[in-house]
Amino acid sequence: MLQNFWYPCEFSSEVTNKPKQIILFNQRFVVYRNTQGQVVMMKDQCPHRGAALSLGWVEDGCIRCPYHGWKFLSDGKCIDIPANAPRTPIPQRAKVQTYPVQEKYGYVWMFYGDLPEAERPSLPTIPESIFSSMHPVSHAHLDAANYMRVMETNLDFAHVIAVHRTSFGQRIPLNSTVKYKVEEQDSSAVAQFTFDSLSSSKSFLNVLLGGRPQVTLRLSFYLPNFTLVEINVGGDSRLNIKFAVLASYCPIDEKTTLVKRTLYRNVLPFSWVDKLFVKLDRALAHEDTVVIESLDPQPLPDMSKEIHVAADALGVSLRKLQQKHLAKNLNLKPNQSESNNSNGYGLESVPTSLLP
């Protein structure tokens, strides 16, 4: 698990005054809202006998353990042990580890690391126009696949013509050269690719768009587990259709990922149409899932064990930056591949020739 990063791990709308368990990398966390509506996140383990606090309840903004009723403040400090006599001192060790949280873009972000507040990185900056002019709908699905594999697929321009060949992929020319430039930052990157649709010019949509519509895909990732997909159909034509998909990839374990997606659209911005768009987005995501779950191995292997072409540049950038920060966490140089792989996620050194 990368240290000193913000992890989007739950939809804000899913966090209430009822404790909820979240699992990341086989670690259990509990999240809830206190009486001020603030999100509280703790290790989901009572220091007394190890019970899952997520099975307990919230009382006066505090959380009670389901086993013996110990009561913990939002800073993790125990303030009540029901079985003790009045005024009995509470053990200093009776405290639960807590984690800093923020809410943004409809997600709860947990900071995992030891940096003081002033030194923590900022959350990603997403274009405000997405939220001000587009209608959102969210859903989640579980993939029996490694989170890096799932995340990488959502950054892959070239897979569309094959994985989605029976859906929207048939609009893309099969022989299109996938060529683009990656703009890379310290822990994020973005790339853009434009093509002309193959759909019949007699279709209603294409008539409105003035012929074969131009489609632009802009894909961004933000370590450790967040992506943004922006789809612009029509370019500068009369009817400009836009979609955007925010997604967090929550690694439950090496081979299980809970994906939380928020789809934004500027067409049919009515809540009663949401189910239709969720159904469509789930269908497209399932097309990815069928293939991703078949990948062998699931944890990313040494880069030299897979073949890479120019169209893979954004995915290679993801792997390179993830490895760089993992090495930094381990206080190692990036070429110390044996240790880089110690977290069980298959990350080893990236040959310079493969870097974008």
TrEMBL record:
Keywords linked to the UniProt accession: 2Fe-2S, Iron, Iron-sulfur, Metal-binding, Oxidoreductase
Pfam families for the chain: Rieske, VanA_C
Entry annotated with the keyword Iron-sulfur: yes
Record's compositionally biased regions (Polar residues): 332-356
GO molecular function: 2 iron, 2 sulfur cluster binding; iron ion binding; monooxygenase activity; oxidoreductase activity, acting on paired donors, with incorporation or reduction of molecular oxygen
Phosphoprotein found in the keyword field: no
Region (Disordered): 331-356
Rieske domain ranges (all copies): 6-110
Protein name, per record: (2Fe-2S)-binding protein
Lineage: Bacteria, Bacillati, Cyanobacteriota, Cyanophyceae, Nostocales
